[in-house]
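Final report, section 2: Outcomes. Of the targets proposed, D-alanyl-D-alanine carboxypeptidase is the one most frequently requested by collaborating groups, and we therefore present its record in full.
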Amino acid sequence: MSTSMSKVAAIGVAALAASLATAPSALAATPAAATPTAVSTTVVSMRVLSTVSSLNVRSGPGAGYTRVGALTKGSFVLGVLNGGWLKISSGPYAGRYTSASYLTLVKPAAAAAVGSTVTGWIALTGGIPARVHTAPGFAYNVGRTLAAGTTVSGKVVDANWIRLNGTGGYVNRGTIETLSANVASVNGNLPAWALCPINTAYNSPQPFDPGYTVTTPRYLNCNAVTALNALQTAYLAKFGHYANIDLAYRTYSEQQYWYKTLGPKYANSPGTSNHGVGLAVDFQEWEGHTTEFDWGGAGSNWLRANGGKYGFTQPYAYGTDGESYHFNFTG
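The predicted structure is given below as tokens.
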């Protein structure tokens, strides 16, 4: 994201407004009041059945409405269920409808028990690799890395670490995605239960467009939040205040906004951002002002030197056009 542009607030998926349906009989001499039927406003995570090659997306809740696109089999979609149709609430088809008959509800995954096997893929994107440690902890040496998208399998050591089968080594659980092998289907469309809130005490104090405030929630991968809390404790001890955060997880629709606003030089194509998998943080950037997270700033220097101790690494060379305030959770 360009340092000359303000940021958008787009975390999570807003609940849709409730409405009531009333239909008193026109034939009744003295119509009795119809019983209002509450319409759901609960956003749920759904997945297109694997037996469906593609699923039509329509302009309204019915087969008679215009087809405006399609979802591929196995893809994830967020929305509100009513009357056999899902009103999509995020991504390129937000506000459109698809039939619920060909969707299945994605339920929260149970935490993997210690000793059980986890199989998935490295969720980082854009050529950013995950770090493999010689023992289960950030303090241990990084022996090698695993490329984004690599399929991995290993045994659960604890809530945060996986011991890789075969080649050995340890990766942080947060860098492994198990929902789908199709990164495009989850990037920016993660279910709410797959994310954890960031402590609002870390939020940047200044508001920025459109309507982002100090109280606006931010979210990250849950393992990344655990690591971020440890990083913030150390930062507070060093500087007397937390490292202010602008943005973290970004929905697909927010990624569309940035790509349209900034173009490919400063924004990833929608569905390819590390923000979209909850594994990236932008610390404070303040248009027209100098911050501690600019190149050479005390905060940026400290994070570059110490972020890896908590799993956060800087992908850009010092002083380049890259974002001085952007860090990925690479484990």
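The first strand starts at residue 20 and ends at 21.
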